[in-house]
Amino acid sequence: MSRGKVLIVEDDDDLRRGLGLRLRHLGYDVVQAQDGVGAVNVARQERPDLVLLDIGLPGGDGISVLDRYANLAALAATPVVVLTGRDPQTTEPVVRARHNVSAFLHKPADNDQLAAALAAAINGGGSGRE
Amino acid sequence: MWSEHEAVGGPRRLLLIEDSPSDAALLEVQLRESILADASIDHESTLAGALGRLRESTYDAVLVDLGLPDSDGLETFLSVCEAATPAAMIVITGVNDERLAGEAVRRGAQDYLVKSEYRRGEVARAVNYAISRQHVLDELRRARDEQLATKDRFLSHVSHELRSPLAVVHQFASLLFDGVGGPLSAEQQEFLTVLRRNVDQLRVMINDLLEVGLAQLGSLTVECQVVALASLLAESVAAYRPQADQRGIDLALHAEILPDVIADPHRVREVLANVIDNALKFTPQDGRVRVEARPGANDVRVTVRDTGCGIRPADLDQIFEQFFQARQSDEFSRNGLGLGLFVSRGLVQRQGGEMWAESQLCHGAAISFTLPVVRRTLEMEEAE
Fold first, then answer.
1. Beta carbons of B64 and B112 less than 8 angstroms apart
2. What percentage of residues in chain B have a pLDDT greater than 90?
3. Are residues B324 and B361 in the same domain?
4. CB B164 to CB A89 under 8 A?
5. Spatial contact of B127 and B63, defined as CB atoms under 8 Å apart
6. What does the radius of gyration of chain B's CA atoms come to, in whole angstroms?
7. Rg for chain A (alpha carbons), in Å?
């Protein structure tokens, strides 16, 4: 039985594929997007239970994706786990100041840490995002 | 070499701080009859007046008599110098005060003039050269700051760019290891273990690199809060137990009942990871690593003690320096970038604690750090 549907937003093809395999291995259904525009379009079509979001993206960075989600009734409550290669010390406060993301992970994230963050975010429901 | 007639950006702006009207007049005449004839010269006779002037205007050079009605000696120089930056400073001194003038030069004055001994053209030449030297110094300083900033940006950029490919290697190696690509022979599994261990090492190095860049930029964030240290310690020790078991090292936590501390939990975890990782790295099979925590009057002291090869006495002070690498036997020759303890100590200090090392060669090492307890901070707040 699926543990839920996760949208992976990642512009690096190899990493997106690797994360997809990892999440399927963990028991999730996976849909994917490779840029900011896709992140919004796929999310509207697929209604994922959770979004795993990179911040450095072509076509609108992860922060503008979060902005769009917040303004769309259908997506405003979807939990988001950020996975970024950007400097977490400067990026995390900027993201957290604007959005209530479920977890903030840095690349390359430890798989146990990733699994725990996804499970907590999905089980915690999508109530918190502003 | 610079010429006496070199002028950058039009007529010079000079400030003359001199309480004796006759000395001031003499200096003005000297300047007016020189190549600085077209300079604009403002005149003040007190420190207060000069500081007021310096708040409103900038000058190419400031000539200051150190004996003023409201300030005397080196104090005068230091006050004016601070307010006048980046102007070139020239000290005016009495015949018997050359030692004081020398001290002013040591503290940043470009030159000094001895009262009533001015030779023709000397004042203007001193001022002109002082300005030129100041320009060169400022240029050098700017270039150095720029280089440091470029180095930090470079470090930051490189470590960010390395993360994505590293994440891919990490992910696919662990997918293989977990059997997602099919069943593995024992040998394949062992090879993948080696691969993953080295990827993890690379990850730690990249994180360290980034943190050093950030620490030097001063932008490393430390957000302190009330932290239950006991559970944080248990968590960190538990995280390293698999690695310790694998290496046949007995890793244990000995903590008394601990008060809460004021710290950044994320940063404390980082420091603990660093120190425990180090201890495991330098401890041979069948060795022991103990994490101990003891409450003191104002802080809690955490010590990570190992039965490894110890630290040479000459290295005890050095291990917290950037890029320090201990000289070890071949077996433990790869020690990372030598940034872990440097970053850790910086983080501990930012949280109000201290970090130090004790060791006897061949008898293990102990790395300790302190974190302030809650009680102390509340008292301090009340006192303020």
1. no
2. 42
3. yes
4. no
5. yes
6. 31
7. 13
Which domains does chain A show, CATH number per domain? 5-99 (3.40.50.2300)
Partners of A90 on chain B (C-beta within 8 Å) are 219
Instruction: Give yes or no for a contact between A54 and A11, defined as CB atoms under 8 angstroms apart.
Output: yes
ipTM of the complex model? 0.85
The reply to whether B102 and B175 lie within a common domain is no
CB contact under 8 A, B167 and A25: no
Whole-prediction pTM value?
0.57
Give the Cα separation of A20 and A22 in Å (integer). 5
Q: How far is B160 from chain A (nearest CA, A)?
A: 6
Measure CB to CB from residue B175 to each of A22, A89, A108 and give the nearest one.
A22
**What's the CATH code of the domain at B27?**
3.40.50.2300
How many other C-beta atoms are found inside a 10 Å radius of the C-beta of residue B236? 21
If one counts the domains in chain B, the total is 3
* pLDDT tens, residue by residue, B286-301: 999 999 999 988 899 9
B201 with B274, same domain: the answer is: no
- Quick one: B245 and B375 in the same domain? yes
**Residues of the domain holding B113:** 13-140
Q: At A109, list the tokens.
A: 């994230």
- Residues in chain B, total: 384
Instruction: Determine the distance in angstroms separating the CA of B358 from the nearest CA of chain A, rounded to an integer.
Output: 32
Q: Is residue B283 within 8 Å of residue B249, measured between CB atoms?
A: yes
Q: Count of CB atoms within 10 A of residue B101's CB?
A: 21
Contacts of A85 (CB under 8 A, 6+ apart): A54, A56, A106, A107, B160, B163, B164, B167
- Residue B283, min C-alpha distance to chain A (Å): 25
State the pLDDT at residue B354: 94
